[in-house]
Specification:
Its main location: membrane. It catalyses: ATP + protein L-histidine = ADP + protein N-phospho-L-histidine. InterPro entries: CheY-like_superfamily, HATPase_C_sf, HATPase_dom, His_kinase_dom, HisK_dim/P_dom, HisK_dim/P_sf, Sig_transdc_His_kin-like_C, Sig_transdc_resp-reg_receiver. The structure is a single chain. The strands form four sheets. The protein has a five-stranded antiparallel β-sheet with strand order 1-2-3-5-4. The protein has a five-stranded mixed β-sheet with strand order 7-9-10-12-11, covered by helices on one side. A five-stranded parallel β-sheet has the order 14-13-15-16-17, with helices on both faces. It is an alpha/beta fold. Helices cover about 50% and strands about 20% of the residues.
C-alpha cells in the first residue's frame, strides 16, 4: 500500500497552534500504529520540530501522516510547502527531525518542495486499508488539546524520558562497575597466567637443555659402546683363533695320542672357543653396522644361487623332524648386495631352525605386484613369539626366555643385525608371529633400479669378451652363446683395442685386470671414441671395488661380480648397460 493510499491524517499549517496539533496527532497515530512509548515520543517530537521550523517560512505548509508498506511497514511523515525560499534541509529543526526517524528525504520542485520522514513499524504490523481507516476514525474522534494540555503532555514525556535516562545511567554505572571489577580479575588472571607461562617456558627450556645433554651423552655412550665392541672383538679374535688352532692340533691323530678323557676335554675347549668366536664375530658385525662401516655393493644377483647356497649350508644342521624347504624363487635376478643378503637369510633361517621342534622352515621369494618390491619370506612352524615381545626381539641382546632358548643359546644379536643390514640394502624386515603356530619374517628389498630394462635383452648380437683368464672367457662364451650371441675373444688390452678397431660390437664384456692397457683404460678409450661411445659395456670383475670406484664405473658401465655370473645376472646387467648408453635392445 502506497503512502498516499494509506493517509491517516492531514493538517494545513496556519499558525503556531497547529504545531501543538501536529505533535499531538503524531503521537496518537504512532500509538495506534503499534510503536512503543519511546518511538511515539520520537515521532511526536520529529513532527513538532519539523512543523515549527517550516511555519517560519513564507508560504503554505501541509503535514500528512500515512501508513507505508514498501519495502517494510513504516509510518511516513510528510511536510510539503509552496513559495518558500532558502533550503529547509539546512534548518536545525529539520536536521533534528531526521535524527529522530529512520530515513529523511528532501526534494525541491520549483518554488516549493517536501520533507519525507520514515519511521519503521514493528515486524508484522498491519498497514492495510482497514487499519488506515481505523486510525483515521480514532483521530477524528480525538479532540485537539489546548496549550496547557499539550504542555502538560510534553512535561510528562520529558519526566518519563528523564526517568528512563536516569535508570539507564544507573544501569550503565552498575555495568561499568561490574566491568571494572571483571577487568581487575582479568588483569590478575593474566598476570598469574603470564607468570605460570613464563615459569613453564623456563621449565621447557631447561628440559630441552637436559634432553640435548642426554641425547649427547647417549650418542657418546653408543659410540663408546661401538668402539668397545670393535676393539674387544679384535683383541679377542687372535687368542681365540690360537685356542682353536691348538685344539685342532691336539685333536689331530698325527699330533699325538690322547686318552678318551683328554680328547673329550679338548673337544669341550674347542667347542667353547668356537662358540665364543662366533659371539665375537657377531659383536664385530653389529659394531660395524652401527658405525656405518658396512656398505652395500648393489649388483645383479642370482637369487637362485643365493638360495642354493643357503640350502646347502643350513640343511645339514636341521634337527630330525624339522625340514628346511627352500623354494625356487619366482624371480631370477635381484639388484642387491649378495653378501649382505646371504647374511640376513642365514640369520633368519638359523633362528627358525633353532626354535622349531618339528615341522618345517620355509623360504620363498617373489615380487609384490603393487609396488614391485622383492619380498623374501622365512616362515616356520615353531613355538612363536608373544605379541608383547615381537618388537623387543629386534633390540640388541633381548631374548624371549623359554626351554628352546636355553637349549640353543645365542646372543640376541641376530635379528637386530639383520634389520640393520636390511636398512643398508634399502629395505625393511618385519615379523608376524603367533605363539604355538610359528613365525614369519618378511624381508622387503627394492625392486628394479631406475633405468633397468624390464624386458629381455636377448639376443645379444656380436659380443666382445675381454679377459686374460681362459676359464672365465670359456664361461662367458657358454653364457653368451646360450643367449644367441656371437662371441669374439680378447686376452689383453691390445687385443681388445684391435678387435674394437676391426668391427664395432653390440656388447663388450670387460675385465679390469688385464695386461696393459688395463680394462679401465680400454673403457675410457671407448667412451672418448664417437664410434664406440654408444656400445654397452658390462664390467665383469673379481676385484674388491671401493664404493667410489664402483660409482665411477657405474656412470658408464654395468658392473657384475664374477662370483655371481649366470645367465639371468648377465641379462639384467646388459639391460642396465644398454640403458646407460641409451641403446634399445
Amino acid at each position: 500500500m502506497t503512502a498516499a493510499r494509506g493517509e491517516v491524517f492531514r493538517l494545513r499549517m496556519r499558525g503556531e497552534q497547529d504545531v501543538f496539533v501536529a505533535r499531538q496527532r503524531g503521537r496518537e497515530v504512532a500509538a495506534l500504529a503499534g510503536l512503543e512509548h519511546q518511538d511515539q515520543i520520537r515521532v511526536a517530537t520529529a513532527l513538532s520540530e519539523l512543523s515549527r521550523e517550516l511555519t517560519t517560512l513564507p508560504g503554505e505548509v501541509t503535514i500528512t501522516i500515512s501508513l507505508g508498506a514498501e519495502p517494510t511497514p513504516a509510518l511516513v511523515l510528510t511536510a510539503e510547502w509552496a513559495g518558500a525560499g532558502g533550503r529547509p534541509e539546512d534548518l536545525e529543526g529539520v536536521r533534528a527531525a531526521a535524527r529522530l526517524t529512520d530515513a529523511c528525504e528532501v526534494s525541491h520542485e520549483g518554488a516549493g518542495g517536501s520533507v519525507r520522514l520514515t519511521k519503521r513499524l514493528p515486524p508484522g504490523s498491519a498497514v492495510d486499508p482497514d487499519q488506515a481507516e481505523r486510525i483515521r476514525a480514532a483521530v477524528r474522534e480525538s479532540r485537539p488539546a489546548d496549550a496547557l494540555g499539550t504542555l502538560r503532555s510534553q512535561n510528562q514525556d520529558l519526566l518519563e524520558a528523564l526517568e528512563s535516562l536516569q535508570a539507564r545511567q544507573e544501569d550503565l554505572l552498575r555495568v561499568n562497575a561490574e566491568l571494572e571489577e571483571t577487568n581487575r580479575g582479568v588483569l590478575a588472571l593474566h598476570a598469574e597466567l603470564s607468570e605460570e607461562l613464563e615459569e613453564t617456558n623456563r621449565g621447557v627450556v631447561a628440559l630441552y637443555a637436559e634432553l640435548d645433554d642426554a641425547s649427547t651423552r647417549l650418542r657418546e655412550a653408543s659410540e663408546a659402546k661401538t668402539r668397545f665392541w670393535a676393539n674387544v672383538s679384535h683383541e679377542l679374535r687372535t687368542p681365540l683363533n690360537s685356542v682353536l688352532g691348538i685344539s685342532r692340533l691336539l685333536l689331530d691323530p698325527d699330533g699325538g695320542r690322547l686318552d678318551p678323557e683328554q680328547r673329550h676335554q679338548v673337544e669341550l675347549i674347542r667347542d667353547a672357543g668356537a662358540m665364543l668366536l662366533s659371539l665375537v664375530n657377531e659383536l664385530l658385525d653389529v659394531a660395524k653396522a652401527e658405525s656405518g662401516q658396512i656398505g652395500a655393493t648393489i649388483v645383479p644377483t642370482d637369487l637362485g644361487a643365493v638360495f642354493d647356497e643357503l640350502r646347502a649350508t643350513l640343511r645339514p644342521v636341521a634337527d630330525a623332524g624339522v625340514e628346511l624347504v627352500v623354494e625356487r624363487p619366482e624371480i631370477d635376478v635381484v639388484w642387491t648386495d649378495p653378501v649382505l643378503l646371504g647374511r640376513i637369510l642365514r640369520n633368519l633361517v638359523s633362528n627358525g631352525l633353532k626354535f622349531t621342534e618339528r615341522g618345517e622352515v620355509r623360504v620363498r621369494a617373489g615380487l609384490d605386484p603393487e609396488d614391485g618390491e622383492v619380498v623374501v619370506r622365512v616362515s616356520d612352524t615353531g613355538i612363536g613369539i608373544p605379541a608383547e615381545h615381537q618388537q623387543r626381539v629386534f633390540e640388541e641382546f633381548y631374548q624371549v626366555r623359554g626351554h628352546l632358548q636355553a637349549a640353543s643359546g645365542g646372543t640376541g644379536l641376530g635379528l637386530p643385525y639383520s634389520r640393520r643390514l636390511a636398512a643398508i640394502l634399502g629395505g625393511s624386515l618385519e615379523m608376524d608371529s603367533r605363539p604355538g603356530r610359528g613365525t614369519e619374517l618378511t624381508l622387503r628389498l627394492p625392486g628394479r633400479p631406475a633405468g633397468e630394462a624390464a624386458a629381455d635383452v636377448v639376443p645379444l648380437g656380436r659380443v666382445l669378451v675381454v679377459d686374460d683368464d681362459p676359464a672365465v672367457r670359456a664361461l662367458l662364451r657358454r653364457i653368451v652363446e646360450g643367449l644367441e650371441g656371437e662371441v669374439t675373444e680378447a686376452a689383453s688390452g691390445p687385443e681388445a683395442q684391435q678387435a674394437l678397431g676391426a668391427a664395432v660390437p653390440d656388447l663388450v664384456l670387460l675385465d679390469l685386470d688385464i695386461p696393459a692397457p688395463t680394462g679401465s683404460e680400454v673403457l675410457a678409450g671407448m667412451r672418448a671414441d664417437p664410434a664406440l661411445a654408444a656400445v654397452p659395456v658390462v664390467v665383469v670383475t673379481a676385484a674388491q671395488l671401493g664404493d667410489a670406484r664402483r660409482r665411477d664405473l657405474g656412470r658408464t658401465a654395468a658392473v657384475v661380480d664374477k662370483a655371481q655370473l649366470s645367465g639371468p645376472v648377465l641379462v639384467a646387467a646388459v639391460g642396465a648397460a644398454r640403458d646407460l648408453v641409451g641403446r634399445a635392445p
